[in-house]
Design goal:
Order of helices and strands: HH
Family: Belongs to the CWC26 family.
Shape: flat
Pfam families: Bud13 (PF09736)
InterPro entries: Bud13, CWC26_splicing_factor
Structural class: mainly alpha
Strand content: under 5%
Number of strands: 0
GO molecular function, one term: RNA binding
GO biological process, one term: mRNA splicing, via spliceosome
Length: about 100
Amino acid sequence: MKRKNEIPKSEQIDDDDPALLFSKNLQKEHRKTSGKYVSATGRKLFKGAFPENRFGVKPGYRWDGVDRSNGFELRWFEKQINVKERKVLEYTLAEDE
């Protein structure tokens, strides 16, 4: 039998639930206690500089620092910059006329 004041299991919060780390407040608290180079899930992160990627994912601590990509990310960022510059240029030229 279900009691009137009982909280459903789906709404109960467990302390060991890894999904809780995706909460912004809990991420801040977790990083304060565990160090600067730790992901939201508690895994260690690479401490050096690394190339930017589309998704903003930081490499793990075992990454050796060698970029083994085929250049797609670089071309993707260049294309995004060109599109933004073209929009600004079109807008400024339209204002001059």
